[in-house]
Design a protein that fits this description.
Radius of gyration: 32 Å
Structural class: mainly alpha
Strand content: under 5%
Number of strands: 0
Order of helices and strands: HHHHHHHHHHHHHHH
Largest sheet: none
């Protein structure tokens, strides 16, 4: 089966009437070639190493400047049986499993539930780790956006989107745009490489879909020489991501609430405008409609636009989360990011339950409160009985006077 020759059939990648021979009119340095994508692999590994260095040596002092502090956590008491169940079977035991653990460990139900709650809290990412991840993404998005904007601001297709398709696909590729593509591919590749160890959030599945769709979109657009429209897509996405990560950085700090709220409002506006307004009305309209002024539809045209539609679907999903956050913010109840600050596998913990250290104190307080309550109830009962007796005697006396 000759799968590779079939994969590179020109009618898959190029408009009708255009062949790979036509593409050879461009110089080798000006023509995108599929093997160029291999450069993204070592770049992805390089980003992983660079991120490790950044989070290890640069993010901690930045976090201290912003007042990032880890919350004091109460560790679960060592228990081989509970730890084995936690790591091998389930982080959240059912009621029947709790009863079984009670019999095997000799603990009460409350002690079992408290142990699992504390153990889950131990696995939650600390504030410094979340700050390091946000700071790393912030600096990449900021650098990529500034570099992309400087390489596109004076290009004709930045202002007139019809220029994206002039003489397509025989369009020379600039070296700045080549590196823009490779660095973005390497970065998203590094996110996929670290996805198993990164903080897992509520939208974990959507993030995986987003990374895969982005990598496929960048790879295909590069091979099919959709580079002009591809650079616009990358620039548009990086613009709002900068604000998101900066807002998260200040959110993890101490004493930056107003700054965080301001950045969040600006981010929400920029995200909704760029992803729900500009992206569909400018980018997708350019690929769906304006491109048809130059060539007829072909397989690559449909595939490219399907990937853009997948991204737009994710934009709508995240816009729903952001609108919900805006609603809470306006009501004064916004405490955390709807998607970024919680792990997807951990339920909302009851903050009023506390740890094991507070259990004895709570029991003593309850016993004391119970004694006080009992005495008050006794006084109230006696008072009610006396009142009833007094009322009864008064009513008997009245009836006797009326009888006489």
């Amino acid at each position: 089966m000759d799968l590779l020759p079939d994969l590179w059939r020109q009618d898959y990648w190029l408009p009708p009437g255009v062949t790979w021979t036509d593409m050879e009119q461009l110089a080798d340095s000006d023509r995108p070639r599929p093997r160029d994508l291999l450069v993204a692999l070592p770049l992805a590994l390089g980003f992983v190493a660079l991120r490790y260095v950044f989070e290890r040596f640069f993010a901690p002092p930045m976090g201290r400047c912003l007042g990032v502090k880890n919350r004091l956590q109460v560790t679960a008491a060592p228990s081989l049986k509970l730890e084995s169940f936690y790591t091998q079977r389930s982080r959240q035991p059912t009621q029947s499993e709790i009863i079984s653990l009670m019999l095997s460990c000799g603990k009460t139900q409350r002690q079992i539930e408290t142990w699992f709650r504390l153990r889950r809290n131990q696995d939650r990412p600390c504030q410094t780790r979340k700050f390091g991840e946000a700071a790393w993404r912030f600096f990449f998005y900021l650098t990529a956006f500034m570099a992309g904007l400087s390489s596109l601001i004076d290009r004709p297709w930045f202002w007139d989107h019809r220029e994206c398709w002039r003489q397509y696909p025989v369009q020379p590729m600039e070296r700045a745009h080549y590196w823009y593509y490779m660095l973005e591919l390497g970065f998203y590749g590094s996110l996929l490489l670290r996805i198993s160890v990164d903080i897992k959030r509520k939208d974990f599945k959507e993030q995986v879909v987003h990374h895969l769709a982005t990598i496929f979109l960048l790879s295909f657009s590069y091979c099919a020489n959709y580079i002009r429209i591809g650079t616009l897509v990358m620039l548009l996405h990086d613009s709002s991501d900068i604000l998101l990560e900066s807002a998260k950085m200040f959110n993890y700090g101490t004493g930056w609430r107003k700054t965080c709220d301001t950045l969040f409002v600006v981010f929400a506006v920029v995200f909704l405008v760029t992803r729900l307004l500009i992206f569909p009305t400018k980018i997708i309209r350019t690929t769906l409609v304006l491109s048809m002024e130059v060539f007829e539809p072909f397989a690559g045209y449909y595939f490219f636009n399907i990937l853009l539609m997948v991204l737009q679907g994710l934009h709508i999903f995240w816009a729903g989360l952001i609108i919900r956050m805006v609603y809470k913010f306006l009501k004064g109840k916004l405490e955390k990011d709807e998607r970024s600050d919680e792990e997807s596998e951990i339920e909302e913990e009851e903050m009023d339950k506390g740890g094991e250290e507070n259990m004895d104190h709570g029991d003593r307080y309850w016993e004391k409160s119970k004694d006080t309550l009992n005495s008050k109830l006794s006084m109230l009962t006696n008072s009610c009985v006396l009142n009833n007796l007094t009322n009864h005697r008064s009513s008997v006396a009245d009836r006797m006077r009326k009888a006489h």
